[in-house]
Specification:
The complex is a heterotetramer of chains A (486), B (102), C (510) and D (554). Chain A is mainly α and 486 residues long. Chain A is built from 20 helices and two strands. Chain A has two domains: 190 residues, no CATH class; 183 residues, no CATH class. About 2% of the residues of chain A have low confidence. The longest helix of chain B is centred in the C-terminal third of the chain and has 32 residues. Chain B is mainly α. Chain B has one domain: Orthogonal Bundle (Helix Hairpins). A three-stranded mixed β-sheet of chain C has the order 1-2-3. With 510 residues, chain C is mainly alpha-helical. Chain C is built from 20 helices and three strands. Classes of the chains: A mainly alpha (486), B mainly alpha (102), C mainly alpha (510), D mainly alpha (554). Chains in contact: A-B, A-C, A-D, C-D. Chains C and D meet through helix 6, helix 7, helix 8, helix 12 and helix 17 of C and helix 6, helix 7, helix 22 and helix 23 of D.
């Protein structure tokens, strides 16, 4: 049952993506929707197993590792899969309108979209270093292609930069994989950790791998590719890139560090990673504050928010792990909502220059509301998922007397408030020549279609996460890293 | 000095050249080629570390390299397509300059 | 973290019962707010009906809760918000005091706002956030621990901001920015204090007399620091000097918002939080022993005098009222800080009294501005000839603010002053007297102008709204002015705010 | 029931008066009746305890308060009748203030708990403002302004004292305050209260509002202001700072000296005045000096109830007499012989001429002082000084007479209320003394004691005729004028000013504005600074660093 479920998760979107390329245009929508709707059925049986505290493990075609490929789903992977499912389904709702499958643009979008989903799924279920490399590469290539899909010069350049840096980072990773394999004779995530010594070679491999992943995860100062790539991509693509694709690299990094013995790199390295995270929080937030374009602002916000994840490395406690994992989920949902709302505003206003937002609330109230609600979570204000994450992270930092981390986390929320409210304030502002009093026939609220609905859905979800954190935390607790301090 | 060490040294050198080229080169084609050079270095390394086991050549290493080459080819093809497309759209073959537009 | 404090979870004297009411009462206005926002701008009649019925239902629910509480039952609802930390909604008698104030004033403010905003844009948005604002206030009232309090406290910050910037003018946006700078900055410190507290002592529910105990001298500085952090978080909203500067600039908001901000929601939430912090977390005994009460009393006293002096210097009516709020709200903190039964009663009862008085004044300021275009103090001359009822309501409230009998404000001042003397802190009397004089100095001239100066030939601005609109504006002001008198004159009767406050304090200081 | 009626009638009058039409007329018609309703509780002796009201109101007429009640009922009722026929202008607000003052006064009289008294006192103080500014002239605005400032200065002291009392005993039964057990540790409260109520009585140097405010009001309003409302201050002393609570009051001789100072200063300043009502106002100040002398004497011998009764008698006599004299101002007293008589008799009575009510009151006062001298607490010559006050008053009354004789407008009718009040002034104190057993039969010695100061006054008047009166002129309100000027320098609170402000030279006004402006600017600057993000950031940072330090040290 679990084997089929895993296969469904990976192959349903993959096959559907190929079918959409080959089949007539009319078939695109039904095929895509059908594939997407099967995904919950793939995820549910896995959830049942993992909820019992077990790990799903399947050797593909019966070959044992190291030659065979093993898929494994523990609680962390399952959490990320759930995040993927939710984000992907709602963003697909948006894409059904913004990229109608039967249209020219839809024909380009949907195959890539489905393949990207398949790649992400495959990545999260992979349990060996090389498989992770392959899937990571697939995710990157699909992502790059989707950024370039609109064909605008700026998007092309952003895609190009992302591609080059991404490929370089992959090669770093692959080089490290080779070194590790040479030393341990295995590629299995868990076995590598057991067999690794702390020799120079291992450390070099670790450093290479971490650096590569830092590039992919766009951690400051290696983030330069991200803002343009996320900022110039089409709305649904931005949403999924920020919500999922950058998390993928962090996911691998966390796996590597806490499951494959990366923590052997020592406290100094962990501290460095944490400091980079702190730098990301501060720099990303400040950069977001100074942006003049809405989507760039949101993209820089992602740079900042990813920094919180990095704090896990110096803190290295289960409390912090819980907090950071929760943060990845909460941020994923909220940031997807934010990007969708931003894309809708851009679509409606013709530009995402911030000055164009003046008075947007009167015509596009739903999107502004979605942006604001998502902003609440991004700022980490209660009641929202972001708050629960921030609370747990602060608590974890406090318990270890990491006053510096506490300060950075608090500062980060304050800075986030500056850029979020900057946007909302502009939307609330009175356009020049407008009047406080209602003009005849003025309508509030604005267009309410599936694109706005998708943004709002995710935003509300980001808020609700603040009230329903218990099940998610319970799930995360079923897959804590081995041997981690509480 | 074992032969393995020579290979490792060579791989590292080639990898370094690739990185240098990637960073310094302006033309996108050169950057792409640099990436390919880096990839080759990695394959050499994999061959080195997994090449010689007492039981003969390591099948895992072979598989890795094979898969790696496939991916490298696919990525190169994709990158080439993107470069061409970008040249058609913008007339540029480098990433210099600001990328801001409406 | 040596576990130097433990919670003194002694068996409560009253019976705590699992009950959905505290949640329902919070949800009523939330659902109403969402419905109003979703309905859109055009459905005016339905919106009005929704607004009013939600307000009435909420008031009824609060009264129901009050009856339960008076019968010795404490309805409670809890679930895990963050693992290990519960969201607790519980209606104890202190909750009821604040909740009934909010529910009652929400009703009158809704009536007023419907009339006031007759010609404003974006009313759906306004009333949506307005309702959410009250939701947050209700949550603050019902919060059973600091975490819950914090959650709704922040919700309040967020829901109020759109109201402050509602007109979207440059000044409004600037005011909104200032508001956020202060509140979010304060809440960051609050959160740190909260985390620290929980790290030190574990999750704590509000308990009459305080949940914390000092077992170890080592923890003294920590506990002081925690108190200061949280008190700053509360103090920003309660407009303790120097954290008050957002309040006067927030005056650009429409009058109903100012009324709500100053009387019920934001400022009062901060003051209520201080009450909870001192009485229910630290307990007045421990606060006193740690020297925190004295510090708070000094801060509050300084605020009282400083706010009044600045109020005296204002020439704009709403600004003057704003600084008056700065001064008056600190009476609450002062009462709590002095400690002892009398002063505590004074602080708590002022929570209600200041609410009804200040909301009356803001209602009237709004009426003056809307109907006559009067916003500055010099323009008030002879105003009572045109608007005698509003002027009367304003005057009653102003006299109450000065603390003259038989208005509500006198009762507060009486308990504060005599409580301070009873605790041997006679210097507080000087503060109260100074405040009385300053209040007289900035309110009496207004009254004199309105009633005794000749009216101008014609009024500068103002609309000619329908009779119903005028009634909708004036009736709420008269109602709250009536309450101002009633709460004073009938202070000694059963179920007056004073009676309720005394009952609360009996729980706290048996 | 009788108390409820006595309190509700003036309140009803106050509530109806502001309305136009029939309601307003009814409100006014209540005015002469409402004071008489005060006699009901006096007659029934009813006591009520309204614990639901405010913080608990206990009401009733204490025996010693009876003369005050009598005074209020008679003087206020007759003055109201007078006012109904004479007051014009903004009558709605006048009658509101009038009835509200009465309501407050009634509470002051009936109060038996702290809160009840304070409530009444505040109401009467504020409502009196409305009748003071009735004329709406520049002088009226100025008088109102000065009145309010001083009233609130007094209020500050009073509320401090009241709160201190409340802090110790809560909303205490006032009768208990007059028992020794309650005096412990309340010295500061006592002095605050004595000082605060002294404002109402016009004790020097807190008298400055009185010569401005009393004359500017309409005639009947002056009558109740000077005749009745000042007694609220005395009631404040006796109810809230009763001398009976201590063996003897430490500062009593000082108080007595202050009383004498007030008595003589009032006369001396009054003699320089050229307006009839102003002279009468200064006479009130002088008489209140005597009241203070009586209070001090009572403080020296608090066990003796006779001195308390003497104070009541003094108040009754002065209130009715002064009311009558003020009403005379509205009836052209110089225009007929009857009117001259109606003026002369109370004037003589005030100067304690033998057989007049003033003689009776003064005789009691002298006995009280004598008792103090006998107890060795006072210098013997104080007795002579008290006697001399009669001479001083007689001089002042001569001034009144001279000024009154200039008013010969025969067209102004002789209002019956004046005549009735004069009759009451001449008879009621005697009747009261008879009924309460405090008659003093005239004997040769006490008549002589009363007579020689009068003869002295006559001599002074004759001498003055011969040599000419010194041409000293003090402005109304004497020391308030320089005070106003200096206040202008400090940008005094902007109480409503008359449209033109004649008191200050332009340069000074500019300086004052500049000073006030710079204060406002610097505070506004501080505000702006606090609002800046950087400043907020710095503050937060500061706190953060502090916390950090604490952590590090702790």
């Amino acid at each position: 049952m679990t084997t089929e479920a895993l296969a469904l998760l990976v192959f349903a979107p993959l096959v559907a993506g190929l079918v959409v390329i080959a089949a007539p245009r009319r078939a695109a929508a039904p095929v895509a929707v059908a594939a997407l709707l099967t995904l919950p059925f793939g995820l549910w049986p896995l959830t049942l197993v993992v909820w019992r505290g077990e790990t799903v493990q399947v050797a593909l075609a019966g070959f044992a590792p190291p030659l065979g490929i093993v898929w494994r789903v523990d609680a962390l992977a399952l959490t990320m899969l759930w995040l993927t499912l939710v984000v992907v389904l709602v963003v697909s709702l948006h894409a059904l309108t913004s990229f109608p499958p039967a249209s020219e643009s839809g024909q380009r979008f949907w195959p890539l979209w489905l393949i990207l989903i398949a790649s992400v799924h495959a990545l999260f279920v992979s349990a060996d270093l090389f498989n992770l490399y392959v899937t990571l590469e697939l995710v990157t290539l699909a992502g790059v292609a989707m950024i370039a899909i609109g064909g605008k010069p700026a998007a092309m350049r952003a895609a190009m930069r992302y591609l080059l840096l991404g490929l370089m980072a992959s090669l770093f990773y692959l080089l490290a994989t080779a070194l590790l394999y040479g030393q341990t004779g295995t590629l299995d995530l868990y076995q590598v950790g057991e067999r690794l010594d702390d020799g120079a070679l291992a450390l070099i491999a670790l450093a290479l791998m971490v650096t590569g992943l830092l590039v992919k995860a766009a951690i400051v100062p290696l983030h330069v590719w991200l803002p343009a790539a996320h900022g110039k991509a089409p709305g649904p693509v931005s949403a999924v890139l920020s919500a999922l694709v950058v998390k993928v690299a962090l996911y691998i990094l966390i796996r590597l560090w806490f499951w494959s013995g990366g923590a052997a790199g020592g406290d100094g390295a962990a501290l460095l990673l944490g400091l980079l995270g702190a730098l990301a929080i501060v720099h990303g937030s400040l950069a977001a504050i100074t942006q003049t374009r809405l989507k760039m602002l949101v993209a820089y916000s992602t740079v900042a928010q990813l920094g919180y994840v990095m704090l896990l490395f110096p803190l290295a406690s289960t409390a912090a792990f819980r907090a950071v994992t929760f943060h990845m989920v909460a941020h994923g949902v909220a940031k997807a909502a934010m990007f969708l709302a931003a894309a809708n505003l851009l679509h409606a206003l013709g530009s995402d220059r911030l000055q164009r937002l003046v008075g947007a609330d009167q015509r596009h109230g739903v999107n502004v509301l979605a942006f604001a609600l998502a902003g609440v979570s991004i700022m980490g204000l209660p009641p929202s998922g972001g708050f629960v994450a921030k609370w747990m992270l602060l608590e974890a930092a406090w318990r270890q007397q990491g006053w510096g981390w506490v300060a950075v986390i608090s500062l980060g929320s304050l800075l986030a408030a500056v850029y979020v409210f900057r946007v909302v304030a502009l939307a609330f502002a009175q356009p020049k020549g407008g009047s406080v009093r209602a003009s005849v026939g003025a309508r509030g609220g604005g267009r309410f279609d599936t694109t706005a609905l998708a943004a709002l859905l995710l935003a509300v979800l980001a808020i609700l996460l603040g009230f329903a954190s218990a099940p998610l935390v319970a799930l995360i607790d079923r897959g804590l890293p081995p041997g981690m301090l509480p | 000095m074992s032969s393995a060490f020579v290979y490792v040294l060579a791989a590292s050198a080639v990898f370094g050249v690739g990185v240098y080229g990637l960073i310094v080169a302006d033309h996108l084609m050169r950057k792409l080629l640099s990436l390919n050079v880096m990839g080759s270095a990695v394959f050499v390394l994999i061959l080195t570390v997994g090449g010689a086991t007492p039981a003969g050549p390591d099948p895992v290493a072979q598989a890795l390299i094979l898969t790696g080459i496939v991916i490298a080819v696919a990525a190169t093809a994709f990158a080439l397509a993107l470069i061409v497309r970008m040249f058609q759209e913008t007339g540029l073959t480098s990433l210099r300059g600001r990328d801001d537009d409406d | 973290m040596t576990g130097t404090m433990t919670d003194a979870m002694t068996a409560a004297a009253v019976e705590t019962t699992l009950h959905p009411l505290p949640v329902v009462v919070v949800l009523v206005s939330l659902l109403a707010g969402l419905a109003i926002a979703v309905l859109g701008e055009q459905r005016q009649r339905l919106r009005t009906v929704l607004n009013l019925s939600a307000a009435v239902v909420k008031l009824a629910l609060v009264l129901w809760i009050a009856l339960l509480v008076a019968g010795g039952v404490v309805p409670e609802f809890r679930f895990a918000l963050v693992p290990g930390f519960d969201l607790v909604l519980r209606a104890d008698s202190l909750s009821v005091l604040f909740a009934s104030l909010s529910a009652a004033l929400w009703l009158v403010t809704t009536v007023y706002a419907i009339a006031y905003l007759q010609h404003y844009a974006n009313r759906a948005r306004f009333f949506g956030y307005f309702s959410i604002c009250v939701t947050a206030t209700m949550g603050i009232a019902m919060a059973g621990n600091l975490l819950t309090f914090f959650v709704f406290y922040e919700l309040l910050t967020l829901a109020t901001w759109p109201l402050v910037v509602h007109t979207g003018s440059r000044a409004a946006l600037r005011a909104g920015r200032t508001y956020l700078q202060f509140t979010l900055g304060g809440s960051a410190l609050f959160l740190i204090g909260l985390i620290w507290l929980y790290a030190l002592a574990g999750p704590q529910d509000f308990i009459a007399g305080g949940s914390l105990q000092l077992l170890d001298l080592e923890a003294v500085t920590s506990m002081q620091a925690i108190f200061v952090l949280i008190a700053i978080g509360m103090g920003v909203k309660a407009a303790l000097v120097p954290l008050h500067a957002w309040l006067p600039s927030a005056m650009v908001a429409p009058a109903p918002v100012s009324a709500l901000l100053h009387a019920v929601a934001v400022v009062k939430a901060g003051a209520f939080g201080l009450v909870r912090l001192v009485e229910d977390v630290y307990g007045s005994a421990l606060s006193g022993a740690l020297g925190l009460s004295l510090a708070l009393a000094i801060a509050a006293s300084f605020t009282i005098v400083y706010g009044s002096v600045l109020a005296l210097l204002q020439t704009d009516l709403k600004k003057r009222l704003a600084y008056s709020t700065v001064s008056q709200v600190s009476y609450i903190a002062l009462g709590i800080a002095i400690g002892g039964p009398l002063a505590t009663v004074g602080g708590m009862v002022h929570l209600v009294h200041q609410g009804v008085m200040k909301i009356t004044m803001f209602f009237c300021a709004g009426i003056f501005a809307t109907l006559l275009g009067v916003t500055r103090i010099v323009e008030l001359d002879g105003l009572a000839r045109r608007l005698p009822w509003s002027a009367a309501a304003f005057s009653v409230a102003a006299l109450g603010m000065i603390g003259l009998p038989p208005m509500a404000g006198f009762v507060s001042k009486w308990y504060l002053g005599s409580g301070a003397v009873a605790m041997g802190q006679t210097w507080v009397v000087a503060v109260l007297v100074a405040s009385t004089l300053l209040n007289a100095g900035y309110f009496l001239p207004l009254i004199a102008r309105m009633w005794f100066r000749p009216a101008p030939e014609r009024w500068t601005g103002g609309a000619q709204p329908s009779r119903w609109v005028v009634a909708g504006l004036v009736a709420p002001a008269l109602a709250t002015a009536g309450l101002t008198i009633a709460f004073g004159v009938l202070a000694g009767s059963t179920y007056s705010p004073l009676d309720w406050a005394i009952a609360i304090v009996r729980e706290y200081l048996p | 029931m009788s108390i409820a009626v006595a309190l509700l009638l003036p309140l009803l009058g106050a509530l109806l008066s502001p309305f136009g039409g029939r309601a307003g007329v009814w409100g006014r018609r209540l005015a002469p009746i409402a004071p008489l309703a005060l006699l009901l509780p006096l007659a029934t002796g009813e006591q009520v305890r309204w614990s639901w009201a405010l913080l608990g109101l206990d009401l009733g007429v204490d025996p010693w308060v009876a003369p005050f009640v009598l005074l209020t009922a008679l003087a206020w009722g007759l003055a109201a009748w007078f006012a109904l026929d004479t007051v014009t202008g903004d009558t709605r607000r006048f009658w509101l203030g009038w009835s509200l003052s009465l309501w407050g006064m009634a509470l002051v009289l009936l109060a038996q708990t702290l809160v009840a008294f304070y409530l009444g006192y505040v109401v009467v103080s504020l409502a009196a403002y409305m009748i003071i500014i009735h004329a709406r002239s520049d002088a009226a605005w100025r008088a109102g302004r000065v009145y309010l400032l001083l009233a609130f200065a007094g209020e500050a002291a009073i509320v401090s004292g009241v709160l201190i009392l409340a802090g110790h005993y809560g909303n205490v039964q006032l009768a208990l305050l007059a028992t020794p057990a309650y005096a412990v540790g309340l010295e500061e409260a006592r002095w605050l209260l004595i000082g605060g109520f002294a404002v109402k009585l016009g004790i020097v140097p807190l008298h400055v509002w009185l010569p401005l405010a009393h004359p500017i009001a309409p005639v009947p309003a002056s009558a109740i202001l000077s005749g009745v409302i000042v007694k609220a201050g005395l009631l404040g002393w006796l109810k809230l700072a009763p001398p009976q609570s201590a063996e003897t009051l430490a500062g009593a001789p000082t108080l007595l000296a202050l009383g004498l100072l007030t008595a003589f200063t009032g006369v001396l300043l009054g003699l320089t005045q050229s307006k009839l009502k102003t002279v009468l106002a200064y006479s009130t100040i002088s008489q209140m000096g005597l009241v203070l002398v009586g209070f001090a004497a009572l403080s020296l011998d608090p066990g003796d109830d006779r001195w308390l009764a003497a104070l009541g008698l003094l108040a009754l006599h002065h209130g009715l007499t002064k009311g009558s004299l003020f009403l005379a101002c509205g009836c052209s007293p110089g225009s007929s012989r009857l009117r001259m008589l109606l003026l002369a008799l109370p004037a003589l009575s005030l100067a304690a001429a033998p057989l007049a009510t003033g003689f009776l009151a003064k005789a009691w006062l002298k006995r009280a002082v004598d008792a103090g001298i006998g107890g060795g607490q006072l210098w013997p010559f104080t007795y002579t000084l008290v006697s001399l006050t009669s001479a001083a008053t007689a001089l002042l009354m001569w001034r009144v007479w001279v000024l009154a004789m200039r008013e010969r407008d025969a067209g102004q009718p002789l209002h019956p209320a004046w005549a009735l009040l004069t009759l009451a002034a001449l008879s009621v104190p005697w009747l009261w003394a008879a009924s309460s057993g405090s008659l003093i039969a005239p004997t040769l010695s006490n008549v002589w004691v009363a007579l020689w100061p009068l003869l002295l006054a006559v001599a002074v008047v004759l001498l003055g005729r011969a040599w000419g009166r010194p041409g000293v002129r003090f402005p109304e309100g004497d020391i308030v004028v320089p005070l106003e000027r200096s206040a202008a320098h400090f940008g005094a609170p902007s109480l409503p000013r008359a449209p033109s402000v004649p008191h200050t030279a332009p340069a000074r006004a500019a300086l004052a504005r500049a000073l006030a402006g710079s204060l406002a600017r610097s505070l506004a600057g501080a505000e702006g600074l606090l609002r800046e993000l950087t400043m907020v950031g710095l503050l937060l940072l500061l706190v953060g660093v502090l916390v950090w330090l604490l952590l590090w040290l702790g």
